[in-house]
Amino acid sequence: MPRACPVECSRSLLDRHASNHLISHSSQMRLFKYQPHEIRFAFCYRVYFSWQTHRRLALSPLPALRRATLDDLLQPYNIRALECVTSTTELRCIVSLTPAETISTCASKLKGRVSKWLRDELEHTEPQPMLSKGYFASTTGKTRSKVVERYLSLQAEHHGYSRRILPPIFVGEYRLSDRDETRISPKHAIVIAKFHLVFSTTGRRGIIGSSQGRRIAEEWRNIQQEFRFVVVKVSFVPDHVHVALRTHPSMSPAAAVATLMNTAQQVMQQELIQARVDRLW
Length: 281
Description:
Elements: H1 7-28, E1 46-52, H2 67-74, E2 80-86, E3 90-96, H3 103-122, E4 135-140, H4 145-153, H5 155-158, E5 170-173, H6 178-183, E6 189-192, E7 194-200, H7 210-223, E8 229-237, E9 240-247, H8 253-267, H9 269-275
Parallel strand pairs: 4-6
Antiparallel strand pairs: 1-3, 1-4, 2-3, 5-8, 7-9, 8-9
């Protein structure tokens, strides 16, 4: 891994090219815009779902729904069933999703496929509700939120910046307001969608300093009012950033990532133009 350059050194390199070429270069250069479907992800995206049957009516075939059967039902949607536990009145499962999938869309697909399977098993010819309208869903994984937040707080020590007089890092933590909670909560379900995102700068260049990190975080906080996500915590070091994020179930991780990446790039537009770099990440 290349050693990250302090932002003070990066700035001097940027200024070396800026004096004669900034105006002409900025008129020709266009920053690369990230699209959700074009971003490559290394990811673990798992969601726990829980449904009750419609009006808690006992459905005799439901206990026979096993993980393998559920996995076959969801295969056309590229959704993998990892665990499945059922009773006559309840369905609980853990599924693995791709970053472009939203939790709400997955819930609709899962409910639809299971409902059809139940109707076929019961030999019902007319459509009728099988599972409750509301559901519970939560992202799940091996690492707890508090562990992630503590890890973000220790980035300066982890990367050896803590001994510097002016470490080129920025860490920000933000408390969710009642308005934030309302904005990311659906009407007919209880959903907790938490994500830990990591972005690396292009070529792992050390071009993000504490002031840039602060500006980017402030703009992310500003735009979250119009998007259905909330920034919980950020940790910037010169060549990458960690973000703890909560989202509405109708927003996919891929869409959130593209929004954050493009916004950060706009904030640092002048620095990128001076460096003759067409992308930040």
